[in-house]
UniProtKB/TrEMBL annotation:
Family that this chain belongs to: Belongs to the PHP hydrolase family. HisK subfamily.
Reactions this protein catalyses: L-histidinol phosphate + H2O = L-histidinol + phosphate
Keyword Kinase among record annotations: no
Residues of the PHP domain: 5-214
Protein name, as recorded: Histidinol-phosphatase
Record-level Gene Ontology MF annotations: histidinol-phosphatase activity
Natural source organism: Letharia columbiana
GO CC annotations on file: cytoplasm
Enzyme Commission identifier(s): 3.1.3.15
The protein's annotated pathway: Amino-acid biosynthesis; L-histidine biosynthesis; L-histidine from 5-phospho-alpha-D-ribose 1-diphosphate: step 8/9
One biological process term in Gene Ontology: L-histidine biosynthetic process
Keywords noted in UniProt: Amino-acid biosynthesis, Histidine biosynthesis, Hydrolase
Length: 310
C-alpha cells in the first residue's frame, strides 16, 4: 500500500505548485492508498520567507491561509473517502522556544491526525531556502558546516523533547546546502553523538522517522536520512515511515522506487504508517493507529512498478 506522510500544495504554500485537490487527485491516479496532507504551520512575523513577503503576507494572513487549508482538507477527506485515505495534519517549524506556544495553540484548535516535527531554521535563519541564508546561519554557528550541524541537531533535540512529534521530518536536512551534501557525519565525533542521542530519544517515545525521497530529487544520492543514520536507527529498534514531501503534482510518489531500493540495501525490512483505527498509540490523536508493512509486501502492490519510474 503506497503512502506518504508529508505533502504540500501551491494553494497553501508559496514555494509549491497546484491546488490541494489536484495533489489528492494525482495521489489517487498513482494508486496511493493513504496520503497525509501536511501544509506548513503559520509562522511569526519575523520568520516570513522571501516569497511570502513578496506576496504581502503577514502572520495574520498566514494564519488565515492555514485555517482555509484545514477546512479544505476536511472537505477533500470526505469527498475522496471512497478512493483514498487522507490524513490531515501539518508540518511544524521549530525556530525558537516560543515556537512551542504557537504549536500547542494550533494543536488545541485543529483536530490533526498527525504532525511532522521539522527544523528549517538555525539561529532564526533558514538553512534550506538558499545558499546565501545557509552561509549566514553557518557564520552564526562559528563558520563551519560541522559547527552548524551541531547546532542543528541540538535544536532538533530541543524540538523532540518539547513536542515528541509522531513523524520526524527530513532528519538530516542540514546537509542539503552544505559544502558536501554527500559527506559522512561520522567524521565529526560531536555531531555523530548528537545524532545518536536524537535517534535514541525518538525510539524512546515511539516516533517515526520519515524516509523522505525529496533528498533524491534535490540531487543527492540518498534520501533523508543518509544510510549511515538509517542503519543505526533501524539497528537500535527505530521505525521508519515513507514520504515524498511533494510540493505539487509532479512530485507525488517521485523516486519511490529508488527510495525503497535504498531502504533494502540499508537493511530496512519494513516501514510504518499511520491510519485511522481502534488502537490509539498517542493520546493526542485519538483514533489514529500505527501499523507496519514489509518492503517485500509493499513492492508487490500493483502500483509499485508504476511508481518505480518516478
Amino acid at each position: 500500500m503506497p503512502f506518504s506522510h508529508h505533502s504540500h500544495s501551491g494553494q497553501f504554500c508559496g514555494h509549491a505548485e497546484n491546488t490541494l485537490e489536484e495533489v489528492v487527485q494525482t495521489a489517487i491516479s498513482k494508486q496511493m492508498d493513504l496520503y497525509a496532507l501536511t501544509e506548513h504551520m503559520p509562522r511569526e512575523e519575523e520568520d516570513l520567507y522571501p516569497e511570502e513577503i513578496t506576496s504581502s503576507h503577514t502572520a495574520a494572513t498566514l494564519a488565515k491561509q492555514f485555517d482555509d487549508y484545514f477546512h479544505e482538507a476536511q472537505r477533500l477527506q470526505k469527498a475522496y473517502a471512497p478512493a483514498i485515505k487522507l490524513l490531515i495534519g501539518m508540518e511544524v517549524d521549530w525556530i525558537r522556544p516560543t515556537s512551542l506556544e504557537v504549536i500547542q495553540g494550533l494543536l488545541s484548535k485543529y483536530p490533526c491526525d498527525l504532525f511532522i516535527g521539522s527544523v528549517h531554521h538555525v539561529h532564526n535563519t533558514p538553512i534550506d531556502y538558499d545558499r546565501k541564508m545557509y552561509i549566514e546561519a553557518r557564520e552564526r554557528s562559528g563558520g563551519t558546516d560541522e559547527k552548524l550541524a551541531e547546532d542543528y541537531f541540538d535544536l532538533q533535540y530541543e524540538m523532540l523533547k518539547a513536542l515528541e512529534p509522531p513523524v520526524v521530518g527530513h532528519f538530516d536536512l542540514i546537509r542539503l546546502l552544505s559544502d558536501d551534501p554527500e559527506a559522512s557525519f561520522v567524521q565529526w565525533t560531536g555531531v555523530w553523538q548528537k545524532i545518536l542521542r536524537n535517534l535514541d530519544f525518538i525510539i524512546d517515545y515511539g516516533g517515526l522517522v520519515e524516509l523522505n525521497s525529496a533528498g533524491l530529487r534535490k540531487g543527492m544520492s540518498e534520501p533523508y536520512p543518509k544510510a549511515e543514520i538509517c542503519k543505526k536507527f533501524f539497528a537500535r529498534g527505530g521505525a521508519f515511515t515513507l514520504s515524498d514531501d511533494s510540493h505539487g503534482i509532479k512530485q507525488v510518489g517521485t523516486n519511490y522506487g529508488r527510495c525503497l531500493s535504498f531502504a533494502e540495501k540499508t537493511g530496512i525490512t519494513s516501514v510504518h504508517f499511520l491510519e485511522k483505527g481502534a488502537a490509539t498509540k498517542d493520546s493526542r490523536f485519538p483514533g489514529i493507529s500505527t501499523n507496519a508493512v514489509s518492503l517485500i509486501e509493499l513492492k508487490k502492490h500493483p502500483s509499485f512498478s508504476y511508481l518505480e519510474g518516478f
